[in-house]
Design brief:
By secondary structure, the chain is of the alpha/beta class. It is 47% helix and 17% strand. Helix 1 packs across helix 3, helix 8 crosses helix 9 and helix 10 crosses helix 11. It is elongated, with a radius of gyration of 25 Å.
């Protein structure tokens, strides 16, 4: 049996081809009763629209914007490169992609950047930022204009964003606890926890997952309050050193964010002989070297290429009103040891 066509829809609904086209492309000038008739005819006939062909015929150009924090991070550099690579691969699909960076601790600059997008036509926004009431308000405004919005790496669950692209951060924290507890073994002591900022949801979720497993499975280990490095390697080294000086029973360190360089610098500068287990996040040139040198015990990472491609697929699907393939967009948690370095 041949596939139904728009001619079949027009005949089934008793309307013209022009009316079917207006309904399918959400153009004005069609009565609600007629829209209902056309949609019912589409359902009865089982018509499946070829969105790609329709967009090509209309010469549609998609415009997507990525907003990322401007910090000296190997992980973010890798993510920007992955987005640029994905963008080059979508030139033939009439997709225009821009990357904007904003200071990480200036919420007003972030809001101004997002508000400035309101003056341009964009189809989708991918944002990596702390969730604040101001950011939620701007996302709501963009959604009112029909802009697809996804959050990257750290979520905005209380906003009207369409989708989150990144690992399950609570699960990542639980994974870190299991690794740290097993590497430490039967020794008792304290665990230092170093974060970028406890204002970042991914840091909070990882910490919550970490604490839950430590309490349930490793009660002989005592996690300390988080210390913040604010994406600054020198500051991270100082707060890590101060924590170790104040707590001589530390047997492990969980580096929750991307500031592992400061943590490894602080550990390398110690004069005592105690073995301190270090678990961190994101495979970068520095964490690779640290694993190879034995300065780190394990790294929990996520594929930045998958994140970039997934964000673009989700934005494209939302812009076209198509469903998302959940399994395809699930970002996996990967555990890297010295023995399995890629």
């Amino acid at each position: 049996m041949s596939r139904p066509t728009v001619n079949d829809i027009a005949k089934e609904a008793g309307v013209s081809l022009a009316t079917v086209d207006r309904v399918m492309n959400a153009r004005p000038g069609v009565r609600q009763k007629t829209i209902l008739k056309v949609n019912e005819a589409i359902q009865r006939l089982g018509y499946v629209r070829d969105v790609a062909a329709a967009n090509l015929a209309r010469q549609r150009l998609y415009r997507f914007v990525f907003v990322l924090p401007e910090v000296p991070s190997h992980f973010l550099a890798s993510l920007r490169e992955a987005i640029a690579d994905a963008a080059r691969g979508m030139v033939a699909e009439r997709t225009d992609i821009h990357i904007l960076t904003v200071p990480p601790r200036d919420p007003n600059a972030l809001v101004r950047t997002l508000e400035n997008l309101g003056g341009d036509h964009i189809d989708g926004l991918a944002i990596m930022a702390n969730e604040t009431p101001e950011v939620r308000d701007v996302i709501a405004q963009l959604k009112e204009r029909g802009v697809a919005v996804v959050s990257l790496v750290t979520d905005q669950p209380n906003s009207e964003r369409d989708h989150f692209v990144g690992v399950d951060n609570a699960a990542a924290g639980r994974t870190a606890a299991v690794l740290l507890g097993r590497f430490i073994g039967p020794r008792t002591g304290q665990v230092a926890v170093v974060v970028n900022s406890m204002l970042a949801r991914d840091m909070v979720e990882r910490r919550l997952g970490f604490d839950a497993v430590m309490a349930a499975e490793f009660p002989h280990l005592s996690p300390l309050p988080s210390v913040e490095g604010h994406d600054d390697p020198a500051l991270t080294a100082r707060v890590t050193s101060a924590c170790l000086d104040a707590n001589p029973d530390v047997v492990g360190v969980y580096s929750v964010g991307a500031g592992t360089r400061g943590v490894t610098n602080a550990l390398a500068a110690r004069k005592d002989d105690r073995k301190i287990v270090l678990i961190g996040h994101e495979l970068t040139p520095h964490t690779r070297e640290a694993l190879q040198a034995g300065a780190m015990d394990a790294v929990i990472t996520q594929d930045t290429g998958h994140i970039a491609r997934s964000a673009l697929r989700v934005l494209r699907a939302k812009a076209d009103g198509l469903p998302i393939i959940a399994a395809q967009e699930r970002i996996r948690i990967e555990i890297i040891l010295k023995e399995n370095l890629p």
